[in-house]
Amino acid sequence: MEVRHGKAAEVVGLDEDSRRQAQDLPGEVPTIGALLKTLHRARSQDADTAEADYAADGRPVRIFLDWDKNSIDDEALYTISSYEPTPG
């Protein structure tokens, strides 16, 4: 994903499912900022699991959310890799 001005400018999937999502729902792929807002909301709304692992520079590299451990299909796992900040 390439982000410009806080919005997804280009999305490329790495596997069949993510390629389909990138093609069908490009606006649904969250930016790091959106993921952090969702993580904060999950924590403030007492989600059963709202965890994040961070790189040494403070950016998240993994976010796991499970709003209700007794519900099916409400879990989300985001892994952020190959992060390259833009110069400036």
Tell me what you see in this structure.
- The protein is an alpha+beta fold and 88 residues long.
- 25% of the residues lie in helices and 28% in strands.
- It has a three-stranded antiparallel β-sheet, covered by helices on one side. The chain has a two-stranded antiparallel sheet with strand order 1-2.
- A hairpin with a 5-residue loop joins strand 3 and strand 4.
- It is globular, with a radius of gyration of 14 Å.
Q: Please give the alpha-carbon distance between the first and last residues.
A: 19 Å
Shape: globular
Number of strand segments:
5
One letter per element, helices H and strands E, the order comes to EEHHEEE
| Average pLDDT over all residues | 88
The count of helical stretches stands at: 2
- What about the largest sheet? 3 strands, antiparallel
- As laid out across the biggest beta sheet, the strand order is 3-4-5
Classify the helix fraction into a percent range.
25-40%
Please report which band the strand proportion falls in: under 5%, 5-15%, 15-25%, 25-35%, 35-45% or over 45%.
25-35%
CA-atom Rg in angstroms: 14 Å
Q: Which secondary-structure class do the elements indicate?
A: alpha+beta
